[in-house]
Amino acid sequence: xxxxxxxxxxxxxxxxxxxxxxxxxxxxxxxxxxxxxxxxxxxxxxxxxxxxxxxxxxxxxxxxxxxxxxxxxxxxxxxxxxxxxxxxxxxxxxxxxxxxxxxxxxxxxxxxxxxxxxxxxxxxxxxxxxxxxxxxxxxxxxxxxxxxxxxxxxxxxxxxxxxxxxxxxxxxxxxxxxxxxxxxxxxxxxxxxxxxxxxxxxxxxxxxxxxxxxxxxxxxxxxxxxxxxxxxxxxxxxxxxxxxxxxxxxxxxxxxxxxxxxxxxxxxxxxxxxxxxxxxxxxxxxxxxxxxxxxxxxxxxxxxxxxxxxxxxxxxxxxxxxxxxxxxxxxxxxxxxxxxxx
Length: 342
Hints:
- By secondary structure, the chain is an alpha/beta fold.
- It is 46% helix and 12% strand.
- The protein starts with a helix and ends with a helix.
- The model has no long low-confidence stretch (mean pLDDT 97).
């Protein structure tokens, strides 16, 4: 089976011939190790596509992520400013919405005019044409709750969940519409088979299970329902310890839920197996960055033995990896899964 066939089989709840394996995003690592910067690539689709293709050959992940690290541009396109970093992902300088009335002034179609977003889309299409027969080539964005928090600011968002819940629902609904608008042309022209969303502000370390159920889950479900109606899978990563809400994840409608390293993977298998494909959850810092290749292999083997021998599972780090993770550790991470026959 080709890598894309392996991963899609798992997303459908099946048991492929080997353990599926991928990083999540990997933009910071790939750009750093390609020897360039986020800013240099932001207006050069050909170079960005070259980076994606060459790093796919180097990493051998089943999924290649266009736009990893560029998620804040989707919010900035509506009137914000981006701050580039020397190594890390570009950040939004300040929230766009400072008063409730500001939301009414935002024009979703401005995202169509953003130069960097269009660069990512062009790079995605070039990479899909070159390696899409072998790998799943996706494009990443923030999930609805996180994108909404970028628009208003994380701290005001947290406060508003208590003081202005109706406004939170309104802004997350807007963010969901923005995401559908972003992805719609790439779904309609068959560029995408999988959409990748990261919803870190919906973390178990930031909002309660009850808040997640009210403010995050319905909007993830609306997005994944739309994607599924178009025949497209959705991979969703949520940070933090979400063990207390595992039973809610099948209700998101996602094809696969990617779990943080803080989640009890045995519990995840118990709750999720047969209901939704789940992925995880090698510690991206303690193991991938600070560990030895043998540490990586030992951890991967334990996770697979506990959670990944029956299908419907993908070996992944518990989040995106730092840009300085040793290549030898990534190699071992990939090798363990590629050599593990199911």
